[in-house]
Histidine triad nucleotide-binding protein (Allofournierella massiliensis), 112 residues
Amino acid sequence: MDCLFCKIAQGQIPSNKLFEDDKILAFYDIDPQAPVHFLVIPKQHVDSAAALGEQDGELLAHVFATIARLCKELGCDNGYRVVTNVGEDGGQSVKHLHFHVLAKRSLAWPPG
Ligand code: 5GP
Ligand code: ZN
């Protein structure tokens, strides 16, 4: 499959990695929207959060526990935002599930 984030997960395209194990990869976004902006992806291809099911609970817990640990390590003590865009209206440009993590600036809500 011709998927950018599968290629990044497999190391075929380089990325600035924060953490990886056999299940997930965390790497910095190439076009950061905040002083800290990284992405967390499952290594196994999933189209988007719309494709998640009950069987993915363990993976999601691992993603969020990893985000919490990385944010602590990066000193994001004032908080952070986790976002996953789904589909066209959601603004998803890469069709491989990813969680944006943004921190170290005040983030507006609601988003535009
Ligand atoms: P989306 O718009 O799908 O929610 O988010 C995709 C994100 O992937 C964007 O924030 C974009 O900057 C990032 N991105 C796109 N291509 C690359 C790449 O080749 N490397 C990295 N590190 N990030 C990328
Ligand atoms: Zn993929």
